[in-house]
Amino acid sequence: MTTVSVIYYSATGTVRGLAEEAAASAREAGAEVRLRAVPGTPEAGREPGTPDATPEDLEWADGILLGSPSHWGLPAAPLLEFVNTTPHLSHAGAFVHKAASAFVAGSSRNGGLDNTIQSLHSVICHWGAAVIPMGSAHPVLYLPQNGNPYGTHTASGADPGTVHEDAVAAVRFQAARTAWFARALARARQEA
Fold first, then answer.
1. Helix, strand and coil in the chain, % to nearest 5
2. Global pTM?
3. Which of 48, 119, 123 is nearest to 85 (CA)?
4. How far apart are CA 106 and CA 67, in angstroms?
5. Residue (of 60, 67, 56) closest to 33 by Cα position
6. CA-based R_g, the chain, Å
7. In CA terms, which of 5, 147, 148, 175 is 20 to 30 Å from 166?
8. d(CA 124, CA 83)
9. CATH code at position 23
């Protein structure tokens, strides 16, 4: 069975909402899923009982989805601190031929959301995993609040904790797509 870890940091609950939808979609796509919050995620951004993310959750997974708020065009510091615990896995090749993708949220659509996703893509590239973008071929990409070809992003404006329905559709597509690539890459690793 394909395995997918959805790892997120959420301050207000918006990223958590995206992460929960991503996890549900990956499950519907046939994956076994771990939904994990980065240590330090405040109560507003954590569903009761959500376990803390560990590097082992990344090693276990065939596919990885990273979620973060956008802070001045960069991922939130707690998520980056978590990523900084992974060099031993990266150097050992634990991420090679895995599928990974990123989604973000912010208060403003012009607040560097694209830059934040691309910063997370840089992490994925350093890990040696395959970046799974949204692309531009699916109809969900033409919804007004969907994100962009790099990944899902949503802007909550003056209503923190909310997730626009367009972003829900987009992150569900993104998670299913990531699970599909994770399954294909896992099969290829087994055959190699």
1. 45, 20, 40
2. 0.96
3. 123
4. 11
5. 60
6. 15
7. 5
8. 10
9. 3.40.50.360
Note whether 105 and 141 are within 8 A (CB): no
**Residues contacting 48, CB < 8 A, separation 6+:** none
| Nearest Cα residue to 37 out of 74, 10, 71 | 10
Mean pLDDT of 79-93: 96
8 Cβ neighbours under 8 A, 6+ residues apart: 15, 16, 18, 19, 35, 36, 37, 38, 41, 45, 66, 67, 68, 79
The H-or-E segment that residue 34 falls in is strand 32-37
**Count of other CB atoms within 10 angstroms of residue 52:** 13
The pLDDT value recorded for residue 190 is 85
The boundaries of the domain holding residue 7 are: 3-191
Query: What CA–CA distance (Å, rounded) separates 147 from 42?
Result: 25
| % of the chain residues with pLDDT over 70 | 100
Place of tokens 């840089």: 122
Terminal-to-terminal C-alpha distance of the chain: 18
Number of domains in the chain: 1
**Pairing mode, if any, of strands 32-37 and 3-8?**
parallel
- Please identify which residue in the block is written with the tokens 């994925």: 124
- Cα 29 from Cα 23, distance rounded (Å): 10
